[in-house]
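Thread: "does anyone have the structure for this chain?"

Original post by V.I.:
We have the sequence but no experimental structure in hand. Need at least a predicted one for the grant figures.
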Amino acid sequence: MKTMADMYDLNAIRDSFFASQSKSTAGQQEVYVDREGKVRLGTGGENDAPLSRVPQSTFAAATGANAARLERERRVVETKLPANTYYEDTPGAEGWVYEITTMFEHRYVMCARFDGVEYQVRLIEPALETLPTHDQHGFHLYHSGKICLSERSGSGQPTLQEAYARSATWALGVDFVRMGRPFPFNRKQ
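Reply from O.Q.:
Generated one for you, tokens below.
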């Protein structure tokens, strides 16, 4: 029978990860986290406490894949996005920041970022989501500042170029909403 010291043995937890990552079953044990965030070995049903099983794959950033994606994005930025576009790499705010001015002379600053699945765009300026008249549906802008670029639940676009093009069109549509008209690019609106 395992003691509490056995369940919280950091060396045994590490060894279990190493065994899993080397595809060896020898020495591999299940690792769990309880509701307080404590990491431990176990079977998942001790003390009737709800536990979350930890996948024991390698912790890694796909630097090679990320570097290749960033290089592809850089080529798109150089040929398709505004000349003022730059890459912001502040943790939590990574992405391509660009500024556009619509034909109605309204300025919009946005940030497009790849979320691992698709490209999302967040409105940086102006802070329309804080207006008392802000309507998420009418503006196609979530309270978080994320722009709704599609009818899919993720509301992003598959490429940086498409996300940029949709966000510029969105800005023009929002100009109409700001002037008291319906968003012009949705048939049902």
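V.I.: this helps a lot. The mean pLDDT is 82.
O.Q.: and The longest helix spans residues 160-178.
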